[in-house]
Design brief:
The protein is of the alpha+beta class and about 140 residues long. It has a single domain (about 5-139), classed as Nuclear Transport Factor 2, Chain: A (Roll). It contains three helices and four strands; from the N terminus they run αααββββ. The radius of gyration is 18 Å and the shape is globular.
């Protein structure tokens, strides 16, 4: 490796660290939107096609349940305008009515991000039903 390449390696590492912090902050804000009962802002993070597939689940979940949500990044892969993130997402759902029990979910999620202007949009989410209302038997 030439000297010039050795000098550039730390800079590339710093850029990756800055990106990870930006994504951590962005995802933290996204989780907070669920906790603040703000489905509009939460759903804006998703591209139109994916938003159409999850919107009724997200709205149904927040209509019947109070959400507490947090997320941690486990890994980031990809280059250019696309990233794949493995996330550890925690979701606690408390029924808005007096009937039912609190439900907790903690699952690894995979999201694919596509750069959209200066920010990111979620273009894929697995598992897709993570943000759905709890099933009646879980209440």
């Amino acid at each position: 490796m030439r000297r010039r390449e050795w000098i550039l390696l730390p800079a590339a590492s710093l850029l990756r660290g800055d990106e990870q912090q930006q994504l951590t902050d962005w995802l933290g804000e996204l989780a907070a939107r669920l906790s603040e009962d703000d489905p509009e802002d939460f759903l804006r993070a998703f591209d139109k096609e994916l938003r159409g597939r999850i919107e009724s689940n997200v709205r149904g979940m927040l209509q019947g349940w109070e959400a507490a949500s947090s997320v941690d990044i486990l890994s980031i892969t990809g280059e250019g305008d696309r990233r794949t993130l493995e996330l550890d997402w925690f979701l606690r759902l408390k029924p808005r009515s007096l009937v039912g029990a609190t439900t907790e979910r903690r699952k690894p999620l995979t999201v694919v991000l596509q750069r959209a202007g200066k920010g990111w949009r979620i273009v894929d989410l697995t598992p897709l039903d993570f943000f759905s209302p709890p099933k009646p038997s879980a209440q």
